[in-house]
Amino acid sequence: MDKKIKIITHDESFHADDVFACAVLSFWLEKKNKSFRIIRTRDEKIITSGDYIFDLGGVYDADKNRFDHHQIGGAGKRENGIPYAAFGLVWKKFGKELCHGFEEVKDKIDQKLVQPIDAQDNGIDIFKPIFENLRAYTIENITSAFQPTWKEKDGDIDGIFAGLVKIAKKILEREIIKASHLVEVEEILKKGYQKVNDKRFLVLDQKYHRQELEYILKDFPKELFFATCPTSLEEWKIITIPAKDGSFKRRKLFPGNWAGRRDKELAKITGVPDALFCHRGRFMAVTKSKKGAIKLVQLALED
């Protein structure tokens, strides 16, 4: 007798929604040291024998581990109006436990990863193209790239699905780590910012990735324009703070005549001997020392 837990979803074509829903369930069961197998089918007899059923069956009942959203009326919406797809439904139930009990970490991943996939699966656009015929390349595009084309035989489509689930699980594992660390550093940065006298810039003695700082500091008060911290190259980077709307727009840029300048040329223009580089986009600069970074910030604030 087969005692393995059955995770059941539909066969044939797949999308990011069912791939990631399956990844969540696989991840959760592995954490519980449970033995399971993934079955892709549309056979009603097999479906009814499942322990976890998602993205088919026409039923959403979290208590019974039924996670479909295709029924009339769907399976509910978030407060912002984004409806749940299978990924969101299983994440809603199991996400917090996978995030070591931290609701804030679960919510960050829901916003960053789950909601965009749920929205796309429900036919909702959350991005507005700026350029004609040019759209962002999404996780759904990646998943779709592995679908056989009309000139290819389906081959081992269940094997392809299983391979993508493994990749999705690794993405989830990394996003949980990153979100957990973001929650931690948010508190550090908030406490640090409360202590500074000049609220226009923030000097940090710990190394942080630029993307981490930008993600967090965009929600800080609008009077904050720059932040600087050391790098792994024993240099100091200075970043400009993004606008809160999530675009690449910045609250303030470095002076125009610094753009693309390096080393002696930048040092001569700024009067800062150890100035090393200013990005031609004027959103980042690098110096050799903390003192030099603070001086560049002061000059940029006066510009």
Describe the structure in your own words.
This protein is an alpha/beta fold. It has 2 domains: 5-180, no CATH class; 196-302, no CATH class. Helix content is 42%, strand content 13%. The chain contains 9 helices and 10 strands. The chain has helices at residues 16-31, 44-48, 86-98, 103-121, 139-145, 157-195, 210-217, 263-270, 290-302, and strands spanning 5-9, 36-40, 52-54, 60-61, 66-67, 201-203, 226-230, 236-240, 275-278, 284-287. The strands form 2 sheets. A 5-stranded mixed sheet has the order 2-1-3-5-4. Strands 6-7-8-10-9 form a 5-stranded mixed sheet, with helices on both faces. A hairpin with a 4-residue loop joins β4 and β5. α1 (16-31) crosses α6 (157-195). The mean pLDDT is 94.
Tell me the strand percentage band.
Answer: 5-15%
- Report how far the terminal alpha carbons are from each other: 76 Å
Number of domains: 2
Q: List the secondary-structure elements in sequence, H or E.
A: EHEHEEEHHHHEHEEHEEH
Helix count? 9
Low-confidence stretches: none
Q: Give the overall shape.
A: elongated
Number-wise, the strands total 10
Q: Roughly how much helix do the residues carry, as a percent range?
A: 40-55%
Largest sheet: 5 strands, mixed
Helical/strand content category: alpha/beta
Mean of the pLDDT scores? 94
Cα-atom radius of gyration:
24 Å
Spatial order of the strands forming the largest sheet = 2-1-3-5-4
Topology:
Elements: E1 5-9, H1 16-31, E2 36-40, H2 44-48, E3 52-54, E4 60-61, E5 66-67, H3 86-98, H4 103-121, H5 139-145, H6 157-195, E6 201-203, H7 210-217, E7 226-230, E8 236-240, H8 263-270, E9 275-278, E10 284-287, H9 290-302
Parallel strand pairs: 1-2, 1-3, 3-5, 6-7
Antiparallel strand pairs: 4-5, 7-8, 8-10, 9-10
Helix pairs in contact: 1-3, 1-6, 3-4, 4-6
